[in-house]
TrEMBL record:
Gene3D superfamilies: 3.40.50.20, ATP-grasp fold, A domain, ATP-grasp fold, B domain. The keyword Isomerase does not apply. It comes from the Bacteria. GO terms for cellular component: cytosol. This is N5-carboxyaminoimidazole ribonucleotide synthase. The keyword Nucleotide-binding applies. It comes from Serratia rubidaea (Serratia marinorubra). It is an enzyme of class 6 (ligase). Residues 84-267 form the ATP-grasp domain. Its EC number is 6.3.4.18. Keywords: ATP-binding, Ligase, Nucleotide-binding, Purine biosynthesis.
Length: 305
């Protein structure tokens, strides 16, 4: 079995290493500043726990590595502009959006997108950083260097946020976990709840959307798709081409964790369909209590993001 080198040595890389141990897979999370000669990458399969990285001696070596899975997909999805363009090409629903190139565009932006504009840096903005909620008269709050480096989206009135974690094998087979309901505070994911019985219509819709993305990119491994619930449909918010925080529950709440699933996919091992092992119970009362908690938390937060 080939070893796996993970570009990045944060918590996701360490969890991938732990998932590999029972399978006899050597997984090496590697810091971006590591010296190439200290990393056993030559005969390894390469993956990453992050979407973007600076140029270092190691990343220059890996740039041409033939077994760097999804190597050319990472930069495409790390840039919100090219990510949104991909979703538009696939005719997948998102909040209305556009590139914000110049301050002179604000009248047109508000006329087209409405009175709440969500501005996001194209790269690097996450956990509430690099993002602004602006209304007419607040345009000066945006730094001058943001123009050309940001997209702007319509503020959406949504009833909930969910993410779908799925995986695709080399042969194109896709498997998925149940939709996970997410609660954010100050732009940071605080809680993810996988209900015992997900809404079948939303689950099917989400799986069709993520399948279209995975197949269009010829992606291999785990990907997460974050969505807004608007009425009976989903709007895609963002994609993460890696294992994801909203999938941590799978380590103890599913028959196979997202980390093992990712390793299996990139190494060409059999890809089982994940089964739920619901620690909160399997009955409708538990589902009802979970939904009440989610609804109460959503009511206490702004419905516009």
């Amino acid at each position: 079995m080939k070893p796996v080198c993970v570009l990045g040595n944060g918590q996701l890389g360490r969890m991938l290493r732990q998932a590999g141990e029972p399978l006899g897979i050597a997984v090496y999370p590697v810091g971006l500043d590591a010296e190439p000669e200290a990393v056993p990458y030559q005969n390894s399969v390469i993956t990453a726990e992050i979407e973007r990285w600076p140029e270092t001696a190691l990343t220059r070596e890996l740039a041409t590595h033939g077994s760097f899975v999804n190597r050319d997909i990472f930069p495409r999805l790390a840039d919100r502009l090219t990510q949104k363009q991909l979703l538009d090409q696939l005719k997948l629903a998102t909040a209305p959006w556009q590139l914000l190139a110049d301050a002179a565009e604000w009248p047109q932006v508000f006329a087209t997108l409405g009175e709440l504009a969500i501005v996001k840096r194209r790269v690097g903005g996450y956990d509430g950083r690099g993002q602004w909620r602006l209304r007419p008269g607040q345009e000066n709050e945006l730094p001058a260097d943001a123009y050309g480096e940001c997209i702007v989206e319509q503020g959406i009135n949504f009833s909930g946020e969910v993410s779908l974690v799925g995986a695709r094998a080399h042969d194109g087979r896709c498997v998925f976990y149940p939709l996970t309901h997410n609660l954010h505070e100050d732009g940071i994911l605080r809680t993810s709840v996988a209900l015992p019985t997900p809404d079948p219509a939303l689950q099917q819709q989400a799986e069709q959307m993520l399948s279209a993305i995975l197949n269009a990119l010829d992606y291999v491994g785990v990907m997460a798709m974050e969505c807004f619930i608007v009425g009976d449909r989903l709007l895609i918010n963002e994609l993460a081409p890696r294992v994801h925080n909203s999938g941590h529950w799978t380590q103890n709440g599913a028959s196979i964790s997202q980390f093992e699933l990712h390793l299996r996919a990139i190494l060409g091992l059999p890809l089982p369909t994940p089964g739920g092992e619901h620690s909160v119970g399997d009955g409708e009362p538990d589902r009802h209590r979970c939904e009440q908690r989610l609804a109460g938390a959503a009511a206490g937060a702004s419905a516009l993001v």
